[in-house]
């Protein structure tokens, strides 16, 4: 039998029915009863971890069976989001990871702080949502450089232009994500 530790990660919202079905695996008998009727016995080397936003629909019985680690979103900051995103940047753009990291460090947190203090938001947002929106917009610019299996790499002249495009792409994405939640007057203030 394999004695190497195994972690099973469940990431997502807590569904009341789903989490109640997890009670059997959280009990001392450690049996996972699937809706198909199949029963899976967890061994001592198996650990289950749940990463959830809140426990609003989880019963006290379920919560009491789990060890809890709570992280206030403000404690994490925005760097874990950008670091994770930079690790999966397309190969053609990896040479610019340091430049991108520098742009994030210089402008992202200050821009979000400006939104929090000087912008009247039309739609309330979280710092993490603004950051994820920025990263998704950056992904749109990078999409043509994502090489699929069997495809030729982008032409050299296209790759050479990247150095001059990274910064404008970043600022466009920053303005339309972090700066895009404010009313008209706030948008003018954000347009420094």
UniProtKB/TrEMBL annotation:
Stated name of the protein: Dynein heavy chain 1, axonemal
Pfam families: Dynein_AAA_lid (PF17852)
Any GO MF annotation of the entry: dynein light intermediate chain binding
First and last residue of the signal peptide: none
Gene3D superfamilies xrefs: 1.10.472.130, P-loop containing nucleotide triphosphate hydrolases
Domain Dynein heavy chain AAA 5 extension: 100-191
GO biological process: microtubule-based movement
GO CC, alphabetical: dynein complex
